[in-house]
């Protein structure tokens, strides 16, 4: 998996000045992740250091003439899908791409990409903060606390909790709705999309910026946190989109719920990237079922919020936070049960992180938008949708990436992102205002 961060700037920047800035920020320490190469040995993944870096190779400027007539989303799609440098053996798996004068204007794009083994979303936000001399709030300041006796009980119970998680995932596996027998379309099944073979493995990315004040208003009226609010908006928007396009029968909400395996990345207390410049990869998942048959949207939100709270008090959740890298002590062939997603009909995920409410500037250029995204290696078998949201003051930057099993083209995913997602937010906001 490749972690991607995109800064959309109002003016262009100098690539050589950026290399100097990047070197000052991240390459002075010899143990920086940007000096590390990912290798495998006996089924385990390791990192090893390299002594020298070619910054002209890792930080490159691409001519805007290559993208004449293309939208911002189309440019981001092209850059995000090109992982030749990340996947190449030898150099550390990261790069920065700079595109100036996008869409014939004075704006620019700075895209930072690195292998997920080197860092995660928290690390990415910290990198942006360091480059822009800003500081984002820690999403969860307090460590989870538990007594020694409770810790012993949790450690002894951890294998059982792991088995429950794995078997729960297996129980959710159902027939892929896109692959019905004899290519027949059945009621309640997702209608297959005909695609060009050369495009099957490519992802689609779309972005939008919404009014975060509306989310905060929903939070104040319902008492629910931001993550379950965005979760309910996400699944309702996806449901409405699929039904309105005639790809699902409106009475088949249960099918949609079953076809989408939902895993959400929960806040990580005291993540090293939020309290220092220590970049790393932590994975603390949560699962929540959103009952699509529940027509009471506010009641659905309350019940979803309660399910998140229950998960965060789960013993397994606590021990993962304590051990941090519990999943990385397992060999890769065991982890494939989770990381290889080809057995899942579709995958639905949401990650939400707060950014600084202060203005972002990079080398004197004002930030217009800040987006976070991931791409999967072609062997991952990923199918589905992942939504990343970053809050900046009163703005909510939304980045949606999905496979072509869901969206035929860029126009369809842009319609979902820029229309449906905002409409469902407005519905929740209206219901709260008139409650």
TrEMBL record:
<dbReference type="InterPro" id="IPR045034">
    <property type="entry name" value="O-acyltransferase_WSD1-like"/>
</dbReference>
<dbReference type="GO" id="GO:0004144">
    <property type="term" value="F:diacylglycerol O-acyltransferase activity"/>
</dbReference>
<protein>
    <recommendedName>
        <fullName>diacylglycerol O-acyltransferase</fullName>
        <ecNumber>2.3.1.20</ecNumber>
    </recommendedName>
</protein>
<feature type="domain" description="O-acyltransferase WSD1-like N-terminal">
    <location>
        <begin position="48"/>
        <end position="144"/>
    </location>
</feature>
<keyword id="KW-0808">Transferase</keyword>
<dbReference type="Pfam" id="PF03007">
    <property type="entry name" value="WS_DGAT_cat"/>
</dbReference>
<comment type="pathway">
    <text>Glycerolipid metabolism; triacylglycerol biosynthesis.</text>
</comment>
<dbReference type="GO" id="GO:0005886">
    <property type="term" value="C:plasma membrane"/>
</dbReference>
<comment type="pathway">
    <text>Lipid metabolism.</text>
</comment>
<keyword id="KW-0012">Acyltransferase</keyword>
<dbReference type="GO" id="GO:0019432">
    <property type="term" value="P:triglyceride biosynthetic process"/>
</dbReference>
<dbReference type="InterPro" id="IPR004255">
    <property type="entry name" value="O-acyltransferase_WSD1_N"/>
</dbReference>
């Amino acid at each position: 998996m490749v972690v991607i961060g995109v800064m959309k700037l109002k003016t262009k920047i100098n690539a050589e000045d950026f290399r100097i800035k990047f070197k000052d920020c991240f390459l002075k320490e010899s143990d920086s992740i940007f000096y590390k190469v990912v290798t495998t040995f006996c089924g385990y993944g390791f990192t090893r250091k390299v002594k020298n870096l070619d910054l002209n190779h890792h930080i490159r400027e691409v001519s805007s003439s290559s993208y004449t007539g293309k939208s911002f989303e189309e440019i981001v799609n092209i850059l995000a899908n090109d992982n030749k440098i990340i996947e190449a053996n030898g150099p550390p798996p990261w790069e920065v791409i700079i595109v100036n004068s996008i869409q014939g204007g004075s704006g620019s794009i700075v895209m930072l990409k690195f292998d997920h083994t080197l860092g995660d979303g928290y690390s990415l936000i910290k990198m942006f903060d360091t480059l822009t001399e800003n500081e984002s709030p820690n999403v969860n300041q307090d460590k989870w606390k538990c007594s020694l006796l409770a810790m012993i009980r949790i450690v002894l119970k951890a294998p059982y909790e792991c088995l429950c998680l794995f078997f729960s995932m297996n129980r959710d596996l159902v027939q892929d709705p896109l692959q019905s027998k004899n290519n027949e379309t059945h009621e309640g099944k997702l209608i297959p999309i005909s695609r060009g073979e050369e495009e099957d493995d490519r992802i689609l990315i779309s972005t939008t910026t919404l009014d975060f004040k509306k989310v905060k208003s929903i939070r104040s009226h319902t008492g629910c946190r931001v993550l379950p609010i965005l979760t309910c908006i996400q699944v309702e928007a996806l449901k409405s989109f699929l039904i309105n396009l005639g790809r699902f029968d409106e009475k088949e909400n249960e099918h949609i719920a079953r076809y989408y395996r939902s895993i959400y990345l929960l806040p990580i207390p005291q993540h090293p990237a939020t309290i220092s410049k220590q970049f790393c990869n932590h994975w603390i998942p949560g699962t929540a079922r959103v009952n699509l048959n529940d027509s009471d949207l506010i009641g659905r939100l309350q019940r979803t919020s309660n399910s998140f709270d229950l998960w965060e008090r789960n013993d397994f959740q606590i021990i993962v936070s304590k051990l941090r890298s519990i999943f990385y002590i397992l060999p890769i062939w065991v982890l494939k049960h989770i990381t290889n997603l080809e057995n899942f009909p579709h995958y639905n995920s949401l990650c939400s992180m707060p950014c600084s409410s202060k203005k972002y500037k990079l080398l004197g250029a004002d930030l217009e938008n800040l987006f976070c995204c991931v791409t999967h290696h072609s062997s991952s078998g990923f199918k589905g949708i992942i939504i990343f949201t970053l809050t900046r003051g009163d703005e909510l930057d939304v980045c949606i990436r999905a496979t072509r099993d869901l969206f035929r083209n860029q126009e369809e995913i842009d319609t979902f992102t820029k229309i449906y997602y905002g409409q469902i937010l407005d519905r929740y906001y209206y219901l709260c205002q008139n409650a």
